[in-house]
Structures
1.
Amino acid sequence: MILRHIIAITWKDLKILVRDRGALAVLFAMPVGFVLVMTTALGGLFGGGESAISVLVVSEDKGYLSTQIVEGLKVAEGFKVETEWEGQPLTRAKAEELIISQKRQLAVILPADFSQYILGDALPSQSSELQTTTIQLMVDPALSPEFTGPIVGTLQGLLLQALMPVGIERLLDQIAPGMPQEQRLIFIEQARQGMLIGMSIEQITPPGMSLRQLPNTTQQNVPSYTLFGVFFICQVIALSLIREKQDGTFRRLLAAPLSKSALLIGKLLPYYLVNLIQIVLIFAAGIWIVPLLGNPALNLGAHPEGLIVVSLAAAAAASGLGLLVATLVKTAEATGGLSALIAVMMAAVGGCFVPAFVMPNFMQTLSKLVPHAWALQGYQDILVRGYGLSQVMPEVGVLLIFAIAFFGLALWRFRFD
Amino acid sequence: MIQAKKMTENIVEVSNLVKSYNGIPAVKGINFTIHRGEIFGLLGPNGAGKTTTISILTCLLLPTSGTAIIAGHDVVSKAKTVKGIIGLVPQDLAIYPQLSARDNLLFFGRIYGLKGRKLQQRADDLLEMVGLFERANDPVNTFSGGMKRRVNIAAGLLHQPQVLFLDEPTVGVDPQSRNFIFDNIEQLNEQGMTILYTTHYMEEAERLCHHVAIIDQGEIIALDTPKALIDRVGGGIIRLGLSETTTEMFIAQVKTLPAVKDVSCQDSILSVQAHHTQEALIQIIQLFNTAKVTITTLEVLEPNLESVFLHLTGRRLRD
């Protein structure tokens, strides 16, 4: 009989939810919309998409070294190099115009004497007076240093790479003028390829972590906004419970031979199921719709079963939070505002809007106090770090502790009238 | 008014029922019984204790003390059994406005254990009874206030309860729907259902109830058939406002007038129960004219439950 009661209440609430366009918008349209918009908008920040920040490159120099720098910039990750505009080679004036009109934010200008300086006068030889030349970085003042920093770093690396062989050649002229030409060329070529001292940079991962794919905008935004949407269910749950109280339907139901536990389970179960449907739909949008906007598709990793377990635990914590919010307010009006505030603040602290690793230390510590952070970590363990089910059990455990704590507090405070 | 039926078996027995909230009594030791098959009215103003009493009888509230027995079962110790044999139509529109009338009834039917064809048939019968069969699949939030009230009533009837509690079922209802609801209640009672009906509309209690308990400030101040209660005020009530100094002096003189049944005085208002209001009024005015006493206010009340309440409490039902 209890099971039939639970099914009846669950079915009733699902029917009501299907007719509630506002709730459907909050639960489905909002997170999917956020995923699509933010994945596209932040493509440049996380890389991996087609929308990396554009860098105008104006080469006033015609020498091979400037060409080498431009080609080096083109293959560097994180930004897109443009050397032409509407089919014409870029000029300084055109770059200025494009930045002023805010069509572009950043231009690298290689001066006309760039190659000549390096090949002829850059390094001290007979003359004691050091000549200089300048590569200019023309930027929109509103552009954040986070964007200019990588470009400056890349330029410095490329310059070093360009200068090194010339410097070696000059040095050999000074210290080993009798070295055979063949051996000189080997030294210079090794210097050009950065192999002179046999050092290179290799990206590796600790044992047990297989970096399947560098985290890109899709892998950051899909799980983040999925969790944002999942925990927004607290608003819908709380509103549903408050309306039952206000309309007197709880009173009517409690006058029937129906246990309070069956009533509460029946009230929460539909929203738990809705959470799971939400997660499936938003992840599906990440896999199939996000690529249509020019962003990488969501890759579920090698152990998608881990995503299921993290999702089940996160949805349980969200349901508990919904019940808890319902105990904190008395009117539907107050419920809407408070639950939205809680959902948004927790998402922000939990790293759904801004990744926790860019937050100050105290914020990173604070983020551990909200379930979003643990769920997000669990998702990214699977999606990005290549972890399996057993390795996300700590996150799942913490999420279940959150769920138990939320339910415990809520049941202690909950009143049916 | 429905003629009293031969109803002897008590289906509801309330003894010394008390309910206090934080030490403040809302119900102060009330006693009454309801016979099987009757419509019993609980008449009183807002805040009199009607809903508290119903809440205890429907197992929603625990009494502070006293007992309430329904069909032989204690509402506290046998709450689950009691809940299965009673139906509650709350004062609020306790239905789901987003759902259709049929979906509402099917849901509440399932809660009472009905299922399958029997549930569908029962829902259809009730929709027919409350005149909403044609609108059965429309969302309730598209209904008028009266139609919503009718769905509210139907939702309490799915399991064919032995005792139906109707808590102010006509609040905010247009006259047409009100009459429809009255017809439904009378029909249910004809079928043998016992009904406890709370209202602060005296005309409803007069029309529907076999017995009426008048409740005020948590106490039952009168309990009888509507006719017997109305007989208490004779041919009607005349209320006269006089100056403070003259009121007490004239009570004894007015009592001696032949058309006057009884006199009481409260707050400078002389309340006169008359055998015949018109004759009594003439006699009273002659008396005061002779004595050169000024009447500041004058009110003549028809003999009905409203005037009974006014006579008993000095206040109106809808104050």
2.
Amino acid sequence: MAGMILQVQEVSKKFGGLQALLDVSFDLSEGQILGLIGPNGAGKTTLFNVINGVFPPSSGQVIFRGEKITGLPSYEVARRGLARAHQVVRPLNDLTVLENVMVGACFGRERHSLGRAASLAEQALAQVGLADRAPRLAGGLNVAQKKRLELARALAARPYLLLLDEVLAGLNPSEIASMMETIREIRGQGYSILMIEHVMQAVMSISDQIIVLDYGQLIATGSPQEVAGNPQVIEAYLGDPEMTARLLAE
Amino acid sequence: MNPFRQSGLWPSFLLVFLVGLVVLALRQDTLRETAFTGLMFIGLASSLNIIMGYTGYVNFGHIVFFGMGGYFGFYLLSEFGWPLYLAALAGGVMAMAIAFIIGAAVLRLRGAYFALATIGVNQAAGAFVSNFEPFGGSIGLSINFSAYDRYGGAGQALWLSFILLWVVTLAVLVVSYLVKRSRFGLGLIAIREDEDTAMVMGVKAPRDKTKAFLLSAFFPGLIGTLYFFKNGNVQPDDAFNFQMSLEVLVMVMLGGNGTLLGPVLGAFCYEKLRDYLLTSVFFKDLQLATTGLILLLIVLFVPGGGVGWLRKRFPELRKWLE
């Protein structure tokens, strides 16, 4: 399909007796931000792991830019232009901030030499507002800075698609606002983004489309407004929809 | 970026270079023997550092490459009359081939499991060679003294093996430095810090750590051949001495895991310390216990080793203490 950067087709994943994902299908068009929401334990991070090859799905297909990438190891997926920022920040602690980001540039889609990677890494750090931390050890950053480091590392790989796993979690309101600004700028440069987010107001305002996962199944797809009004979604988050409606009316 | 213009290589390189020069200038046999052992351990520790320090895979079986490569090279030169240079190279290549096979089996393991498996490999290699008839079984092999004639007699041959070891040790340092300053090395260090994240960022970890493992195996194979050539014989107990594996590991930790200068200083200091322990009345039976205690103290209190500690304490020295 033209214009589709990512197609996920009937992906299921079972861990022993636990059905973590069941027949999940969705498409992401080029240049869009797709928000992935759902209650805790719904399978969002598992879905990311399947997409970027941390583990293969039990069944189903993942198609990235027209190519089947199902079951490829994560480094092969990265080289095809898919980069990820983790929910639990995972800086390479004994490397400097700059070196961390250089790993992304050296081994991502464009596989740069060290010298070129250093200048790309500086650009990426400037873009996320960490330029002044470049020579420090990554282990010494605070949480908000580590989140930005994750983002810079993913950006330095110059991917076609960014997977952002809760990059706003753990940030205070002003940090959230400035991170949102950064993400909008990134989208402005033509990146496609798939983001998991719990901060509802943020994800609703920034996404073009939203998909909702509950107990491993996709329960709603649509624009932010459509999804917000969907009774199934409200039930997944709050329990009984009628009760919710009453509460909201009060 | 020309990596040689930066200064991190020079302290280690010059140190080893000067030691060799002094020995060659003084031409004393006892000094040469002491220096031979010292250079050998520097070479072994620095090559272990490539897989253990850079890549984060703690290998208790490093001495297997020394033993296997050394046995193979020795076999070629004593049984088939290969020249020392070629036999040593063949020993290195053999060690790489063995690393490839071992790596395919154990490099998929991580952390403690990898370390445990390498202890097993160490024991298995010794048991195998003890029962392998072409290598002389448990008795080992002795050199045919005519093999020394082509180098102008035994005396000259010993000097030749020293000079070759000196060159090999310098080569280990240069290679180790180039790896550290390369894109490949950045990938290895990323694997050390967090292998899964490194892979998500595109580092081809299974391939890269295999390469690092092969590289770290090549030099012990060379060194083993030179060492056994110098000794004139090779036995399973000398070639697969688990205690030696441990000592090389302690040297790396003592000097600074993952640094270039660390294994050099670690080997030097450990040698001095062992000499003292073995000759002191009180410690002579407690030498290994003391080694264990040192390892424990380093891991607990100075995980970066001597050089790591200096780098932390005096950041301005960093460009010299690579």
